[in-house]
Write a structure and sequence with these properties.
Strand order of the largest sheet: 7-6-10-8-9
Distance between the termini: 20 Å
Order of helices and strands: HEEEEHEEEHEEHE
Shape: elongated
Number of helices: 4
Structural class: alpha+beta
Number of strands: 10
Helix content: 10-25%
Radius of gyration: 22 Å
Length: 206
């Protein structure tokens, strides 16, 4: 019975490998360039930390971390929604709120620790040394993401890895050759990633 189960698992793994190697799933590096929709200004998310600098009002300047509800509280302003907004937009919102108390309020937001909203992160799951969510930045590639994730484990089937991308409610899965990229230094296996991408690294069957 155990032998049959092991044989079945092997055949399933071989079938999955065959599907990937047969070319039914497109390669990520075949995507020539990302659309402008993916490359947007940074928006603040829960967990982000930034400094609020109010010109000529050092007592109102402070450092805050965005709460899980996407809000912050600063001197004279309570429960300001900041998640989903750019730092510039938050600065203008603060100026509007502070204008009730001081004249010609001028605020500046200086980012310190950037996490970003979930849809602006690149997540790595499976056989990475440090599976995690990586904050997206313009021009980020698969190599950048894997460096942040500590590379592959010894059990990873790097060349069977995939990247899942959602664009306008359409989900597309691409193949990745992570073993070629990380172990052999094949830069042709590298490609740009986009906010919201999910990299999945399966375990090797043998």
């Amino acid at each position: 019975m155990l032998g049959r189960l092991m044989l079945s698992a092997f055949l399933i793994g071989a079938a999955l490998t065959g599907c990937i190697e047969s070319g039914t799933t497109p390669m990520l590096q075949d995507v020539v360039s990302l659309k402008d929709d993916f490359v947007k200004d940074y928006v603040i998310g829960p967990g982000d930390q930034f400094q609020v600098f109010v010109w000529r009002n050092t007592d109102l300047s402070t450092t805050v971390r965005v709460r899980p509800d996407g809000r912050i509280s600063v001197p004279l302003v309570e429960d300001l929604v900041v998640a989903g907004k750019t730092p510039t937009k938050v600065a203008r919102d603060l100026e509007e709120k502070l204008s009730e108390f001081i004249q010609d309020a001028k605020a500046t937001i200086i980012m310190i620790d950037m996490v970003g909203p979930v849809d602006r992160q690149v997540r790595v799951v499976g056989e990475a040394t440090k599976p995690q969510a990586v904050n997206y930045r313009k021009g980020m590639t698969v190599l950048d993401v894997m460096i942040a994730a500590g590379g592959l484990t010894q059990f990873a089937a790097g060349n069977r890895s995939t990247l899942t991308r959602t664009e306008k409610d359409q989900v597309t899965t691409y193949r990745l050759r992570l073993a070629d990229l990380l172990k052999d230094g094949d830069v042709t296996a590298n490609a740009e990633v986009a906010p919201g991408d999910v990299v999945t690294i399966p375990q090797s069957w043998f």
